């Protein structure tokens, strides 16, 4: 059994491995961890042994400089003459580009083609890049997390919100219920791109979900830097420490969405130099779904649920509410079956309570313009109302139960406010009554209830008995939400078609399940990956190839009805295609070899350098090989990996000869050089490694190699 964190921190002689769970939430992010001796091949942790990162900058929850909250707001801003939220100085997000002894690029996300997604052009001056992105405290300071709240609500600095990035995760949830947030985000993202503050990804002339990548990366760089500093202080963490990341994603995310967050985490890890980078291997996060991670953590502490039992996880966070119906598959290790009914979700999390509260106060104060004559110059009704938000966030919304009959009357002190009985104003006070609180809370409570009702009704239609609903997330600790759902479940239990009690499980005490349940559950899942889902690919991977046109050859149906390109060098007809070797929907063993394929590069005799390039593409839709690159089947392809290498030595050392007097299928070839390479790929777990060898024979020498993390290409929970 793995040792406790306390034991580990006292034993500095045994090298430790750190398993770090990252829950990148819509409104809050948490990081949890467990460490064990690196030679412990079967580590085990109990929930009470897991720790979470605290002391986030500007978290004043404890009343001093050291904050106690184990999560940080997922928001970023930056000072720009005290006007804008995001820095006008573009941040470098390029980690060190690892070059192996063969000259091949080992970094999985470094590309140089600006027409393709996930582009990051390398710079020879790596230190200047890192210094640019790392924690510059200069005139364009980059604020993040609690610093954003401090600047907006406590300092009340007036800024242009066009550059404030919040709820960026909803950019990747392409559903009707996130439309309003995405419409707001698209203007922010476009502004940041147009001003060269973040980079454009995907197609240059249209919005793309990948455009949010840099905002994810910038935030995670700060999160991981703080995490590293805390681990150094508390647990003797160092640059040689071995690290494994467990990354959580929503159940409704596409492989593309998971790939974007995966790439942001990989980039941030490289930039921060988080742990041991000496192996020059790609960072391979273990990906697990958010509700499953939460369930693993909760059920590790709750013995009341047994194998075969069906239950509901209601993950009520700050931005979204996700409700999933599960059945326990295996108990040791704890694994859940696939969702029993279609999961439900809505953007009705607790952060929208803040917006309802702000709107309620603004509506009530909209005619009180005389306040601006009393308050300091530069104040507005909006800035006055903003001063009430921290108290609502930290107190009222966590303590008020709007279903209660008594105890809801509240007085907010507002100096200068004139008494008005009709408006429920006392002299210097706003009086908030039960109906005001209901106007803030009930629209969201009703939406959560409707989601739960849909899940329960769908389960009933499938003859599934759901007797327990686990309520978690920050909103899950709300007394109002708890009471509202308990009242609903009581009514549901009394229906004739139900006839049994449905219990609302809220954890221990008023605070409920920890807000770190998801990140902690990710750690537990990563420590024991057995009995996970089948390794069925959710994406296809293929080579970009120049193939001889073979319209009548079986297996090359993709060449039919296509117009080939005439090569002026060798006089042949070619099609530029993608030849897939990992196919969406296929079962792929943990270790598997692909290829080899022969790749031919031709160069005219006056070419000074013989530079070869090989590209790996990924698609979440394609299932057929040998179709042209621009075919409908390949419409969603993205570059996943790239190697570029110089083969000029073959010419200068006379290892290949110039080809003359050769005829192609359409014309006589020009004098040229031909380089034939053997391209092969090998999958090891979630790492896809590919090589280019010359000569193109079994014993050829490796000319270059690359690697791609494919964690996002499989279902969450796959190992």
Concise summary:
Helix content is 26%, strand content 24%. It is α+β, with helices and mostly antiparallel strands and 719 residues long. Among the domains are: 5-91 and 138-288, Nucleotidyltransferase, domain 5 (2-Layer Sandwich); 540-713, no CATH class.
Account of the protein in words:
- α5 (213-235) crosses α6, α8 (351-365) crosses α11 (389-399) and α8 (351-365) runs antiparallel to α12 (434-461).
- This protein starts with a helix and ends in a 10-residue tail after the last strand.
- The model is unreliable at 1-10, 80-90 and 96-139 (pLDDT under 50).
- The protein is α+β, with helices and mostly antiparallel strands and 719 residues long.
- The longest helix has 28 residues, at 434-461.
- β1 and β2 form a beta hairpin.
- Among the domains are: 5-91 and 138-288, 2-Layer Sandwich (Nucleotidyltransferase, domain 5); 540-713, no CATH class.
